[in-house]
Structure formats: C-alpha cells, structure tokens
Amino acid sequence: MATKQYIAKYHQLKQVYERELGKEIADVTWYRVVATLKQHFNFNVLSSDASKIVETFAGFKRCYGSFTGRGEGFSERWEAFKHFYYMDKLYHGEEFMNLLADYLKINLDDVPRSTPYYWFERAELSFSALDIYHCKDLALVAFVAAKWAINKRSQPRKSATIEVLALAK
After folding, report:
1. Same domain for 78 and 143?
2. CA angle centred on 17, ends 48 and 145, rounded to 5°
3. Pairing state of beta strands 132-134 and 90-92?
C-alpha cells in the first residue's frame, strides 16, 4: 500500500514531467513512464534525485521522441549510450567517430557527409574532427547514431542481378 508521502511525491513528479515535456499526459502514461524509469534507471519515487531524473528523462523524450524503452531498437540504442557514458575519457571528434563506427559495426564511408553533424546537433553539440569531447556528452551522439545504424541495417538490399535488370526494361 502506498503511503501519503509516496502518493504526493508521485503526483509532484508527474507535474515535473509534464512541465518539462510541455504537455499534460494521462495517468496511465505516467504509470508507464515510472515503470520505464524503474526498469532502466533503478528509479525510486522517494529518492532525493527523483525530480532530476524525471526532468532529464522528459528532456530526452522531448528532444528525441521515442525514448520510452519499449520502441524497436531502443535496447541497442540504450546500450550504445551506456557504453560511451560510462567511459571516463576525452576524445577528439575524429577519434570518437572511429570508435563509434567500430561499436556500431558501420563503415564511415557509408555515412553521408552531413550525417555526423546531424548526430552532434541532436545532442546539442557542434561537430569538429579536431575538437575534444567528454564521453558523457558523446553518449547522446551514440544514442542518435545508433538509430541511424539500426535503420541502415534494416533497409532491404537492392539487387543488381541480370534477372532484376531484365525486369526493369
């Protein structure tokens, strides 16, 4: 049975989430958000940092859309985020891009030239091959880039066999 203190904090956190998200949400949606936070972040409604966690999560949701923990590819994206977040290192932009490509198993030559700039922009950073970045900042870049890699892998391969070319005539 929930205590009065728990219920009051639960509703207060919902208001924090709605304020940061910029819209009201249904109680069932808030219940799912709390379940996601508990599953992925060891979240506790009564903890001292609960408001900060909810605020940050809502900010991610506002910026990156599908940040529910249930979407297709979320687990892989979240693993990429954690991989870089828990490193305590600094990297040059070019060095990070090579590490990211190795981690995501992508070829940087296949990445359109403007795409890394987009990844960094979504993480509210500016990309430069020579700038130095901390891994905690680069974790968001990895999260965004992982979505691109997942989408790239799931695209059907085009065939250029003779049979296909004959059908095109």
Report:
1. yes
2. 100
3. antiparallel
Tens digit of each residue's pLDDT, the chain (169 residues): 679 999 999 999 999 999 998 899 999 999 999 998 888 777 899 998 899 889 888 887 777 666 656 666 778 888 898 899 889 899 999 999 999 999 999 999 999 999 999 999 988 889 998 999 998 889 889 988 998 999 888 765 555 555 555 555 5
Give the phi and the psi of residue 26 in degrees, each rounded to 5. Answer: -75, 155
User: What is the residue range of 30's domain?
Assistant: 4-64
Same domain membership, residue 27 and residue 57:
yes
DSSP state at residue 105 = T
Same domain, 82 and 127: yes
User: Could you identify the residue written with the tokens 């904090």?
Assistant: 9
Half-sphere exposure of residue 124: CA atoms within 13 angstroms, side-chain side: 6
- Contact criterion met (CB below 8 Å) for 20 and 9: no
Q: Provide the CB-side half-sphere exposure for 12 (13 A, CA).
A: 12
